[in-house]
Amino acid sequence: MTRIKIVVAGATGRMGETLLRAIAASKDFTLHGALERADHPDLGNDAGTLAGLKPMGVALSDDPLMALKDAQVLVDFTSPQYSVELAALAAQARIVHVLGTTGLSANDDEKIRAAARHAVIVKSGNMSLGVNLLAAFAKQAAKALPGFDIEIVEMHHRKKVDAPSGTAFLLGRAAAEGRNISLENSAVKSRDGHTGAREEETIGFASLRGGTVVGEHDVIFAGEGERVVLRHVAEDRSIFATGALTAARWGQGKKPGLYAMADVLGL
Fold it and tell me: Is 77 in contact with 54 (CB distance < 8 Å)?
């Protein structure tokens, strides 16, 4: 069986190293490129060795053009600015781009949609298979419980830089779709001081940060005298790598376009 040639962006980060371990353990992927920023001190060293694995025969590089040459997939959990740059390059190379970066702006999203006219992009605020199933449940619950208030609570490790999390927005967007409302117009991202009574048809977000928490998300439907809580707890980052590689396999041979994990899972 011919292995799928994959490039990992942000190869020395938390998710990058997790992806390298998953690729090393897989039977259908081979590491083709490993990317990092231009000032990274370990450029030129073997990516596998840097991740505590056996040498993988791929040196850490800051040259995406060379890394993407002859590749079939780019997996990207980096930063908004870098992801937008990589989306354009992956589109030029006509390869699958699995995009898990969070904190993207509306302008960033527009550039990514433009790149998706020429390549397959699977974009998600969370690559976990369980979280994306939870999003489907949240959409269904929001539709079935029209009189219930919706609140989303998320917690992550102390080093996470964006809030609310991309996963929280993914879940909020699913709930908004269930209510046939716009998340942009209904989201309440913070509360402080004398805020007044809760407005109807809003979706509240609360963000907690601390310790080494990988990721916890609750979607709360609060009604008169009862609550329904949908919950996902991530215990290991390997679940995100598993989802990303599932998306990478699924994207092979698909028509150019912007896809979500819901498409990958057939939801």
Answer: no
- Per the document, the length of the chain is 267
- Does the CA dihedral 88-93-99-101 come out positive or negative? negative
Residues 6+ apart with CB under 8 A from 178: 138, 139, 140, 141, 142, 143
Number of Cβ atoms within 10 Å of the Cβ of 15: 22
Nearest of 133, 130, 125, 169 to residue 262 by alpha carbon: 133
Q: What is the DSSP string of 170-209?
A: HHHHHHHHHHT--HHHHEE----SS--SPPTT-EEEEEEE
Cβ proximity of 65 and 93 under 8 Å: no
Question: What is the rounded average pLDDT of the residues 214-225?
Answer: 97
Catalytic site positions: 156, 160
Task: Say if CB 97 and CB 87 are below 8 A apart.
Answer: yes
**Helical spans, DSSP H, in the chain:** 14-25, 47-50, 64-68, 80-93, 106-115, 129-144, 166-179, 183-186, 238-251, 261-265
Helix (H, G, I), strand (E, B) or coil at 223: strand
pLDDT at position 73 over 90: yes
154-200 pLDDT, tens digit per residue, is: 999 999 988 999 899 999 999 999 999 999 999 999 999 999 999 99
With CA atoms as reference, report the closest residue to 153 among 69, 63, 213. Answer: 213
pLDDT at 125: 84
Here the tokens at position 16 are 């990058």
Spatial CA neighbour of 48 closest among 35, 38, 57, 36? 57
